[in-house]
Amino acid sequence: MSSTALITGITGQDGAYLAQLLLEKGYRVVGAFRRASMVNTARLDALGIAEHVELVPFDLTDHGNMRRVIEAVAPDEVYNLAAQSFVGVSFEQPVTTGEITGVGVVRLLEAIREVNPEIRFYQASTSEMFGKARETPQNETTPFHPRSPYAASKLYAHWTAVNYREAYGMHASSGILFNHESPLRGVEFVTRKISLGAARIKYGLQEKLTLGNLEARRDWGYAKEYVEAMWLMLQQPEAEDYVVATGESHSVREFVETAFEVAGLDWERYVVTDPAFLRPAEVDFLLGDPSKAKSKLGWEPRTTFRELVEIMVEADLRRAAFEARHGREMLEIR
Ligand SMILES: NC(=O)c1ccc[n+]([C@@H]2O[C@H](COP(=O)([O-])OP(=O)(O)OC[C@H]3O[C@@H](n4cnc5c(N)ncnc54)[C@H](OP(=O)(O)O)[C@@H]3O)[C@@H](O)[C@H]2O)c1
């Protein structure tokens, strides 16, 4: 019999790629989404998998609802990808972020523990938890210093997953994932803002691109590869935490230069910076050490920084060309 996976945050970037991977592996994939007047299946549609995924409404603020969903779906594996995931918004909505991104995970783990503690659990932790990083590169033993309500909420969730593993013997693993991007990345995130901005400028749909801190440095990988590490973590005999990263860091400025070069444009003519886009507390420099993921999971990134920028800009150039020609957005975001 095939295994069943429940993915929260199925409508997000990682949810879509993970669903695709698990379907390829023969899983029954159930996607938990938050109830809205319309379900946003754009990313699942883009990958051509929407009709292969079962969808269930699910709310990270409602413990009873989660318990019933876990009972009804009876998953072998739960991947918790749902979160208020945008750092900038977390400064505007710190309490909501804490409720969903932090306490929501305790509710979910409690529901799993009550229904079936044998279910394997993946928690989407983040390099933002290292924040004002105490050492470079960051690995699984680097101390945390979160610099946003998002990062603080994720840290609470992270330690909760560790605690359920230690206290109840549950198979709960956290993937401390460094930034990972793709053409399915939300347009509010800086990489996608840049790739889409360059493409729209190229087609005369936009004049300028306004950004915040160009000197921030991140370790950027390709989301499609990062979901493979999530799955590998849940196949291990013992649950553990893993850093997932490329081991290379690049500045926002380098991302801009490369993206505009791919679009055939001189970035200095179009990019402006505005201090209004700076965060109350910035994270300047993150660089991950993925040695443990490599040695224990056999996981390694395959796509280079330049290839990633090319994949994103080329997808957005196709979208912008469509928009320029038809006067409306292309729904396809592959
Ligand atoms: N991408 C990265 O670089 C990165 C790095 C480290 C960790 N992470 C974490 O990894 C996870 C997946 O990232 P992503 O890039 O795929 O994020 P994303 O595209 O922003 O997706 C977030 C998902 O969470 C859902 N969600 C938000 N609030 C919810 C609520 N109250 N109840 C239920 N679902 C809710 C969203 O649903 P809607 O579609 O309805 O908004 C969406 O499906 C997130 O937890 C993120 O914080 C991401």
Structural description of this entry:
Strands 3-2-1-4-5-6-11 form a 7-stranded parallel β-sheet, with helices on both faces. It has a two-stranded parallel ribbon with strand order 7-10. Strands 8-13 form a two-stranded parallel sheet. Helix content is 42%, strand content 15%. The two termini are 31 Å apart. It folds into 2 domains: 4-180 and 221-244, NAD(P)-binding Rossmann-like Domain (Rossmann fold, 3-Layer(aba) Sandwich); 186-219 and 248-286 and 303-326, UDP-galactose 4-epimerase, domain 1 (Alpha-Beta Complex). Helix 3 packs across helix 5 (94-115), helix 5 (94-115) runs parallel beside helix 6 and helix 7 packs across helix 11 (305-326). The protein contains 11 helices and 13 strands. By secondary structure, the chain is α/β, with parallel strands linked by helices. Strand 1, helix 1 and strand 2 form a beta-alpha-beta unit. The protein has helices spanning 13-24, 42-46, 63-73, 87-92, 94-115, 149-168, 190-202, 223-234, 252-262, 291-297, 305-326; strands at 4-8, 28-33, 54-57, 77-80, 120-126, 172-177, 180-181, 209-211, 217-218, 221-222, 242-244, 250-251, 271-273. NADP nicotinamide-adenine-dinucleotide phosphate binds next to helix 1 and strand 5.
